[in-house]
Amino acid sequence: MTDTGTVRIDAHLVLPLDDGTGLPMNQTIHALRTDVPGLVVFPVILSPLDTDPDWWSVTHAASGKRLPTIFRSRAAAAAFATAVGPLADWEEPQPRPADAAAVMTLAAEHGGITDREYRAARAASAATT
């Protein structure tokens, strides 16, 4: 994983609310570049002022859209980005991976979990503390 600095991204987020719904919002973030041009990684955003530094997301830099999985470390997120690199031209404004199922398979192979699984694990952890 090459440390190539940060890039400013206008990310499109859906913040989970206590009632199970989500709040769509845009937020400027400073993400870390990956070895794949067009893909960046950053800690999971919990609110406009809070992140979870133990979990990481992968986002398409040009559109600000996050790939729908969360990873346990920056290294795992970056490895996933490298794995999905060949599936699309990530420098395009709105890339379309040739095989969306392959993206999810690669995410699982790199330890990625869904947003729902992440929220459930976070809620379980909060209940025990």
Structural summary, described in words:
With 129 residues, the protein is an alpha+beta fold. Helix content is 27%, strand content 39%. The protein is built from three helices and five strands. It has helices spanning 74-84, 100-109, 115-128, and strands at residues 6-16, 22-33, 39-47, 50-60, 65-71. Strands 1-2-3-4-5 form a five-stranded antiparallel β-sheet, with helices on both faces. Strand 2 and strand 3 (39-47) form a beta hairpin. The N and C termini lie far apart (34 Å).
Lay out the secondary structure.
Layout: E1 6-16, E2 22-33, E3 39-47, E4 50-60, E5 65-71, H1 74-84, H2 100-109, H3 115-128
Antiparallel strand pairs: 1-2, 2-3, 3-4, 4-5
Q: Give the biggest beta sheet.
A: 5 strands, antiparallel
Q: How much strand? A: 35-45%
From the alpha carbons, calculate the radius of gyration and give it in angstroms: 14 Å
Secondary-structure content class: alpha+beta
**How many helical elements?**
3
Say what oligomer this is: single chain
| Widest beta sheet: strand line-up | 1-2-3-4-5
Shape: globular
- State the total count of DSSP E strands: 5
Distance between the termini: 34 Å
Return the string of H and E elements: EEEEEHHH
The percentage helix is 25-40%
Low-confidence stretches: none
The average pLDDT is: 89
Keywords:
5-stranded antiparallel β-sheet; alpha+beta; 129 residues; globular; single chain
In short:
The chain has 129 residues and is of the alpha+beta class.
